[in-house]
Amino acid sequence: MKFFIDTANLNEIKEAYDLGVLDGVTTNPSLMAKEGIKGAENIKAHYKAICNIVDNNVSAEVIATDYAGIVREGHELAKIDDKIVVKVPMIKDGIKAIKYFTNEGIRTNCTLVFSAGQALLAAKAGASYVSPFIGRLDDASQDGLELIAQIRQIYDNYGFDTEILAASIRHTMHIVHCAEIGADVATCPLSAIMGLLKHPLTDIGLEKFLTDYKKVNG
Ligand code: G3P
To answer: What is the number of structural domains in the chain?
Structure first.
């Protein structure tokens, strides 16, 4: 299972990368805005800075919603670095553009996916990644993990190469459940990744080991 971090914050990306378990980064316009990144050139420079930290898989989202605009922006984003994956919304022109990028050998991440039918379409268009938003489904009283399981079954039925990138992850148990179901990737806030480290019995056990060591060794 790949671990991506879902942020545009360079310090958080560095911290996750330094842990040695990070396979990529996902961003979106809201995450870029949160970091105060604005203006086309600054946005491109920020994506480049992210690419300079990690080894691969940096999702950069288009703003355009029409086919020609998505294709134009996608090319601009892909030019920034080979590590860029063009993130395209699940809309009609987005699907057409994903098919185009697939034929051009440009990797894509189909975002804002909330149903198995949408995920099927993204795979048919050749998306490299499909991003079901599980937290937002949970927020709307629909089981996000159920959607991951449905997509897993559909992709396995037909041998689709599209990787399931579980997005909108809110906590560590989302990651664990996604791993059980067979999501290919989880993109998570830093807190959820670091949360995987924690267990109170680990802390208690370590304290006892160190106390016992000190008793004998001073
Ligand atoms: O990057 C897309 C996704 O992970 C958004 O998450 O927390 O805004 O629902 P969230």
So the answer is: 1
- 218 pLDDT more than 90: no
Q: What is the domain range of residue 48?
A: 2-217
The region, left, alpha or beta by phi > 0 then psi within -120 to 50, assigned to residue 182 is left
Residues with a CB atom less than 6 Å from ligand 1: 6, 26, 28, 133, 135-136, 167-168, 187
Distance CA 187, CA 61 (A): 15
Q: How many whole angstroms from 133 Cα to the centroid of ligand 1?
A: 7
- Give the tens place of pLDDT for each residue, 110-128: 999 999 999 999 999 999 9
Q: Is there a catalytic annotation at residue 87?
A: yes
Specify whether the CB–CB gap between 161 and 140 falls below 8 A.
no
| Residue 192, domain CATH | 3.20.20.70
- Per-residue CA distances from 162 to 24, 116, 174 (Å): 16, 13, 21
Q: pLDDT digits over 138-151, tens only?
A: 999 999 999 999 99
Residue percentage of the chain with pLDDT more than 90: 100
DSSP, res 142: S
The CA distance from 119 to 159, in Å, is 14
